[in-house]
Specification:
It is built from 10 helices and 6 strands; from the N terminus they run βαααααβαβαβαβαβα. With 216 residues, the protein is of the alpha/beta class. The protein has 2 domains: 138 residues, HAD superfamily/HAD-like (Rossmann fold, 3-Layer(aba) Sandwich), CATH 3.40.50.1000; 67 residues, DNA polymerase, domain 1, CATH 1.10.150.
């Protein structure tokens, strides 16, 4: 087994929780388009790209829109979301997230962000941890969203570390699938039914046990 050299962390649901902001932004867009959008509907958007999220939201109505209209709706949703993001401060870490980042760095591992979001840097700046990461792979560095492994493979390449020497911390099923497809160690955060395919699963970021992971 290749010795672990780096950790790649998803952003939303692992370090901070902007899921509520995403939900409110999508709900507002849906209402403007005459679509009922519930929290249950929002669950299926977890970890997927903005384009795929819009396709899922529109469902059978997708064919009613032109490409230009779809682009406008994605931009509109992102505008709502970015406005809501202004509420984030350095106090908005999920429990254990700040400590996890500190511990990873303290142990000498490289650390990166692997997120589908194009707002990744904005959120990291708001949390005041942008400079904590050796690499940031986001919606601008790759066009293929999870469960494609590209965002994690890009992060590994930026770190100069082989994929099999990386561990990924993810809270979404699509993210766990992407980590496995990249031949990386998958660390799932969340319920069994969502991230049970991971090599290691913890209920929350605060529960992650680095010693257990390093023991293999």
């Amino acid at each position: 087994m290749t010795k672990l050299q780096a950790f790649i962390l998803d952003l939303d649901g692992v370090i901070t929780d902007t899921a509520e902001y995403h939900f409110q932004a999508w709900k507002l867009l849906a209402a403007e388009e005459g679509i009922v959008f519930t929290r249950a509907d929002n669950e299926q958007l977890r970890g997927v790209s903005r384009r795929r999220s819009l396709e899922l939201l529109l469902g059978e109505r997708l064919g009613d829109y032109t490409e230009a209209q779809l682009q406008e709706m994605m931009a509109r949703k992102n505008g709502y979301y970015r406005t809501l993001l202004r509420q984030i401060t350095r106090d908005n870490f999920l429990p254990g997230a700040r400590e996890l980042i500190t511990e990873i760095k303290k142990r000498g591992f490289k650390i990166a962000i692997g997120s589908a979001s194009k707002n990744t840097r904005t959120v990291l700046k708001s949390l005041q941890i942008l400079d904590e990461f050796d690499a940031i792979s986001d919606g601008y560095t790759t066009t293929k969203a999870k469960p494609a492994p590209d965002v994690f493979l890009c992060a590994a390449s930026m770190l100069g570390v082989p994929p099999e020497a990386c561990a990924v911390v993810e809270d979404a099923q699509s993210g766990v699938e992407a980590a496995l497809a990249a031949q990386m160690i998958a660390i799932g955060v969340g319920p069994e039914e969502r991230v049970g395919a991971a090599h290691y699963r913890y209920d929350s970021t605060a529960d992650i046990d680095l010693d257990e992971i390093l023991r293999g």
